[in-house]
Amino acid sequence: MDRNGRAKYYAIVLGLIFLTSMVGFLISTDTSQAQVEMTIATFHPRTGTADVEGLFHYKELVEKGSNGAIKVKVFFGGTLGGERELVEQLKLGTVHLCLEGWGTRGAYLKKVIPWGVPYLFSDKEDIQATIRGRIGKEVKETFLKNGIVWNGEYFRGNRQLTTNRKVMVPADMKGMKIRLPETPEWLVVWKAFGCLPVPIPSPEIFSSLQTGVVEAQENPVSSNYNARLWEVQKYMAMTNHIVDIQGYLLSKKFLDTLDEKNRQICIKAAIDTMEWCTKFSFDQEDKLLKEMEAKGMTVLRPNLKPFREIALSTMDYFKKVWEPWVYEETMKVLSK
Q1: What pLDDT, in 10s, does the model give residues 188-218?
Q2: Which of 177, 175, 168 is nearest to 198 (CA)?
Q3: Which residues contact 330 (CB under 8 A, 6 or more apart)?
Q4: Distances (CA, A) of 254 to 15, 96, 149, 259, 266
């Protein structure tokens, strides 16, 4: 090859290299490939329980599944607000995932869910059966009408009573001021126990107990541990009155901005993380109980039969509150 031929050859090679690099540059700067930032949040503090650790697990799944196209920012400890505030931000699309609890259910689902009646359900399998049936379908549709995507619940263990009274029978609760979630229907059952219920948001539980606004509250073991309740409560009575559940809620407004692949990544990661949270919670409960006892809290184990009888005597009230089909649907599950 003569000198002119070699010059032409090198010019072609250099041109191809330049074109290749430009294509790579254009692909890397394509706005359709720009990184998406996802905000997820809870009011729970980070103390090593599933409530917050689950969000970091979710972050890992989404960032890995999207190959870094979605960057997840986790907020906890009420930084972005309490349960009610987070759900409102979810609807607006300023928060993209948050945890749903009994306050949210009381606001949106009270006519279609039976899960909050103390002692009605004895285990998570029965609740899962209702989620797979018409009740779950109605919950999903109700949330969707409010701009919220719901894909089920995870299980945090049963809810237990903490108090400065030694509670072994329902009569021990007579006249006791107890903090409850902002769920009006719960007032019926706790009043039947002889209590004086006071609806107080979750972030205010510790201060309300500390100042004597209330003398008792009820939550799963993990929440009682998170709140360091051994500092303000003498006893935890293992009343096991409700199988406690919590859901991952996604913002429809946010999901609608994603392509189908990343949308499904966010939804699947929520479902997978809730399964992870259930296992994490159940594996951890005995450990947390022992730690709380070591810190000075006395664990009581009352006979639950009289509590159950009183609670279920209120069922006529709930039949009136629920949609007509809910009771029948619930009994189908519980009779199997």
Answers
A1: 999 999 999 998 888 899 999 999 999 999 9
A2: 177
A3: 114, 120, 130, 135
A4: 43, 6, 10, 11, 10
